[in-house]
Specification:
Blueprint (H helix, E strand, L loop, with lengths): L1 E5 L4 E5 L4 E4 L4 E5 L4 E4 L4 E5 L4 E4 L4 E5 L4 E4 L4 E5 L1 H7 L2
Antiparallel strand pairs: 1-2, 1-10, 2-3, 3-4, 4-5, 5-6, 6-7, 7-8, 8-9, 9-10
Length: about 90
């Protein structure tokens, strides 16, 4: 389990070891499965994170990247947040 934060380091939520994503108020938002596919709580697939950290929309447009240090960037290289080390290790292979 690990937390994710905004660029201002406000804690936004957590991702459990089973891939379920929760807001900071513990509302379940969706899931990231072991293959990196991202699902909304409605089970609709909304994107993917590949083993190199690239983030894609469901239409396969690259929209951002997760760095090994946990920082998250948009495709335009604007830093937008950070993930705990445990999450990064789970997502990046």
């Amino acid at each position: 389990m690990g937390y994710f934060y905004s660029e201002g380091l406000k804690r936004l939520g957590r991702i459990n070891s089973d891939g379920y994503v929760y807001s900071d108020s513990l509302q379940r938002l969706g899931r990231i499965n072991k293959d990196g596919y991202i699902y909304a709580e409605s089970f609709e697939r909304v994107g993917r994170i590949d083993g190199d950290g690239f983030i894609y929309s469901n239409g396969l447009e690259r929209v951002g990247r997760i760095q090994k240090d946990g920082y998250v960037y948009t495709e335009g290289l604007k830093r937008i947040g950070r993930l705990d080390k445990d999450i990064v290790e789970r997502l990046l292979r």
